[in-house]
Amino acid sequence: MESKRKSMEEMQQEVDQYIGQFKEGYFSPLALLARLTEELGELSREVNHFYGEKPKKSSEEEKTMEQEMGDMLFVLICFANSLEIDLEEAFDIVMNKFKTRDKDRWTRKEQGEINHESN
To answer: Start and end of every NTP pyrophosphohydrolase MazG-like domain (predicted)?
Structure first.
């Protein structure tokens, strides 16, 4: 299933159009936080199955981390939309924080290492 890449703004609009067709609209912030927590638990379970010591039972449905992250993203977008938060702006704020406050927190790679890994 190939599709065009979407900006966060486009994703927020798509979710808003989807939710907007239902009378119930967005859930309350508390309900959305509970759903986000539930989805995080499902992602955690998948990570534990793949990287941890707990293999899946043969009766368990096959899910992927990609699906679980998609579920989390959908709920996060619902949460942001319900509070009228622009996630692109929120992302820019947090990246600025990391680039300034944490700029010397970790050991930087040499320029050659960075270029080599991106090829």
So the answer is: 27-106
